[in-house]
Each structure stands twice: as C-alpha cells, then as structure tokens.
## 1
Amino acid sequence: MIAAAVQVLAESGYGRTTFERVRQRAGISGTRLISYHFGTRDELMEAVLTDTALQAQAALARRTEDAPTATERLTARIEAESAWIARNPAAVRAMYEICVNVRTKRARCATAPRHRLSPTSRNWNRSCGPASRAGSSGSSTPP
C-alpha cells in the first residue's frame, strides 16, 4: 500500500492522492484495508515519509559504512544520495509532495521522519560532521 501511495503521489500530486486512488494502484478490493492499517490520510502520508526515509537511509549507509575517513564518508554520502535520487524519482517526488502540502502538526515534513532516524544515520552525522564542517570552512582536512 505504501508503494502504491508513493506512485499515486508522484503521478497525481498530494491533492489528488486519495485512499480510492491508492486502492486502485495497489489492486486491492476496497479502501477499508487502507483505513484499517493507516486510519487517516495523514497517517498514510506519515508512513510514506517514514518508509521512504528509512529506505534512503539504509541505501546511504550501505554506500558509506566502509569509507575509512570522514572525508571519504562525506564523499560517499554525497555520491550515494545522488544515486538514490536518480534511482528513486517517484519516492523523491512523493516526499516533496507531502512536505510541500502537509498542514497538520502530526505529519509535518520537518519532523515526521527525523524522530525515527536510524542508528546508522545518527552515527553518520557524528562521524562525518568534522569533514562537513571542514569543507564548509574552506579547509581540505577536518580540524
């Protein structure tokens, strides 16, 4: 159902993404199954954001985990993000549609997936922070 919602969001936009359209895309017989699992449209949108963010985080972690230095991890992260975006245009579009259009406190884009960052993402933020700060200050090596 989440994959179907991603496709509907990417093709039709947030305003036209309904349980009925997701039902049709998923090939299920009725919208009650969607309502049972997600309750409301906002809950479905939050699930799409969370699932998509976790997929991206896992893909990025696989590409960055073996880089020996912070600079190499940062380079690998940038390359991995670019590759993930190129391979997942529907997911990127779906996340964009939700982030631009959600108006409720419960599913606000800025906070929905953030509280569920994987341990890998938290570790990446700690391990690549020095390289990122060094790069933004114009230095070629971390302090």
## 2
Amino acid sequence: MKKQITLLGIIILLSSGCTTKNKVQILPDAQIGQPYSVTIDFTNGLRSQSFNASISPENSGLSVSGVAGPYNNETTISGIPKVKQDISIKIRYFVPEAKGFFVDNRDRENNYLIKVKE
C-alpha cells in the first residue's frame, strides 16, 4: 500500500512538471495612429532560422522584426496601430540549452498582448 501511494505521488509530480502553460505577457499600451515600438529580450538566445511570429489581427499596423541583438536574443514589435482592439502576438522559437554534458533542445512559444487605446 505504501509503495502504491509513493508511486502515485511520483507519477503526479512528474506529470505536473511536464505540463507548461504559456502565460500572456502584457506589453506597454499603444495608441491608435501613433508610432509604437517595444523590444523583447530572449535571455537564452535563440536560433534565427527557427523564429516565427504571428500577429492578430493581421491588419493591426504592427510587425515583428527578425532576430537581432549581439547574441541573437532580441526582436522588436513596431509600427503604427490601425485598429482599436487588442493585438495578440505569438512568437515561436527554438533554444538549444547546454546542461552539463547533455544538450536540452527546446521549442518555445511566447504570447504577448498589446492594448490599443484611442
């Protein structure tokens, strides 16, 4: 009985550690018709060939630059907002991480939200 409870506890612990939920990061507000720019820093660096960004709505007036910065660890969201609604940005990228003798390669996804005001 004690072994079953211990085994169940280990399974729950491992499964809870494997599930990650991406939180939406709130970026500074934008104003419709006014220039907007914000730089996002990816502390672990990333591979530019794996970088993919999408913006919703597509006609928002904003765009996401490619990977930049001295360590390929930055991107910029900029433009002039054309719509009076929240703008969602989803960025997907790949990060190779070295951990001891092993390399832990990870696909990442970050979600951002910009509130547009008049």
